[in-house]
Amino acid sequence: MLKFKIIVAGAKGVGKTSLIRRFCTGSFDFSTLSTIGVDFETKEVVLDNDVILFNIWDFAGEEKFRILFPSYVSGASGALVLYDITNRDSLDDLVNWIEIIESASDHPNTLFLIGTKLDLEEKREVSKEEAMKFHKKFNFKGDVIETSSKSGNNVEETFIKLGKEILQHSLIKCKHCGEFFPQELIYCQFCGNKKD
User: Fold this and answer.
1) pTM
2) What number does CATH give the domain 2-182?
3) How far apart are CA 17 and CA 96, in angstroms?
């Protein structure tokens, strides 16, 4: 089984916790509270005949908690960087999150840009075109994906696409045991040997 550490970043209130819970439990809770510091969820999926365990790290969006974030980025295989389609400031705020992610010495190479709250289309402030320009400027992988944790629209697909991108482009083969593991890791997760 491959283990992928996934970090989820974005401003307070964009729906990070709701997205993760919808993916892991299949449910939506209207009374979700803001994350304090960091939270953690796991889910096992099968991708291209490989069993993948997603270890998903949910970070508080408030400014005061961002000091914790860089230490958790280490060893991540991928990141979902979220903005709220009904809040233009949440897209602008992502510049700071991207800087924090990229400041980690072994930051993930696979970052996806995710729009949330697609069920609130009538309140949209960020057009798909604006998001695509932002996506291109910061060299995200894949396409801009817009989701709704309330309806479940594109939630499962988001994690599946991220997992497939990591499988195809972010694994290295261990010279000691022959197993593939995320290139962000310093040690093989199967045999424990340090990568060369």
Assistant:
1) 0.86
2) 3.40.50.300
3) 20
CA-nearest of 154, 168, 111 to 135 is: 111
- Strand ranges, E, within 104-170: 110-116, 145-146
CA dist., res. 98 & res. 82, Å (int): 11
Q: Which string of b and e fits 96-123 if b means at least 16 CB within 10 Å? A: ebbebbeebeebbbbbbbbbbbbbeeee
Cα gap 64→165, rounded to integer Å: 32
Q: How confident is the model at residue 18 (pLDDT cuts 50, 70, 90)?
A: very high
Distance between CA atoms of 160 and 65, rounded to whole angstroms?
Answer: 28
**4 close to 166: Cβ distance less than 8 angstroms:** yes
Phi-psi region of 58 (alpha: psi -120 to 50; beta: other; left: phi over 0): beta
Name the residue ranges covered by the structural domains of the chain: 2-182
